[in-house]
User: Fold DUF3326 domain-containing protein from Waterburya agarophytonicola KI4.
Amino acid sequence: MSNFTVVLIVPTGVGAAIGGYAGDALPIARSVATISDRLITHPNVLNGAQLYWSLDNTYYVEGYGLDRFAAGKWGLNPVRQNKIGLLLDQAIEPELRLRHIQVADATRATLGLSLTDYVVTDAPLEVELRVAESGTSWGTIGNPGSLLRAAEKLIYQGGAEAIAVVARFPDDEDSIELQNYRQGAGVDCLAGAEAVISHLIVRNFRIPAAHAPALKPLAVDPQVSPRAAAEELGYTFLPCVLVGLSRAPQFVTHTELFTPNIIRGNEVNVAIVPYTACGGSAMMSFANSTTEIIAVTNNFTQIDVPPEPLGIKVTKVNSYLEALGVLVARKAGIDPQVFHPDLSSLRSL
Assistant:
């Protein structure tokens, strides 16, 4: 019997009610992982700043790589451990840089992770943040060439098999967007720019990558929502990124897709996504395959892209608890329709 494989997606920077904050989709991932033989998800779901949870059957896949996987262009090759290269933005102040280096050393000594020596970019990355009229977040990098040169040095001189980026992000403690986010009622303004950074590295070097922003610690706020509270701890968001990348699967090209142990997009049984966020590249690919799509209505987002106008067939559920029930039935080989009391008789075609 083949592995029961599930993909869990909560798009980045769209203000998802669940999964739009600091690792608050982790309980969902942990629950889905107990039902699945293999769970494939992305850093936005698993990253909780200094909080994380290692799951043996869960694969940490950057968003661009996940899109390529869903389209059948790339496969996933599970690994026991990656050697991680730490890439630091030149714009990070000396003391804040030292804090991040100490975090990296701590993960080596405490968790046994494998890291190369770090690299500092040859110019500030100049990250700028934007919030669209729709309420979603995005951003730009002023010096993408500097980012790619540093990654290339880590890979070809340091032997890095995955890249953890720490870029200096703008401090804007008084912004309305940040205040709303800390109170659990807004969009993650950093997420869109973070996606740009990781996408650049994955697209150019085809290795796992993820990002942790460098920011000054915020003043204590007694009104911080539990969903955002993980980002209130300490000086850095780096630990979860290093843990995730340490076992992130390597990407393989189309020519390698049929070698043993490679996970392919056409092996995904179920993909789970917020109901109003069905327009992403991965979901469009899964919609044209045999993968069942479960759309969760109570995970509200700032975008309005339901499946029906796109012609995407979904199993619509009210909550992730209901989605878990569908997964249990599917793994057992049971049609979820039989649980409805008004089950109708068969009709002639």
Remarks:
- The mean pLDDT is 92.
- The chain is about 30% helix and 20% strand.
- The longest strand covers residues 162-168.
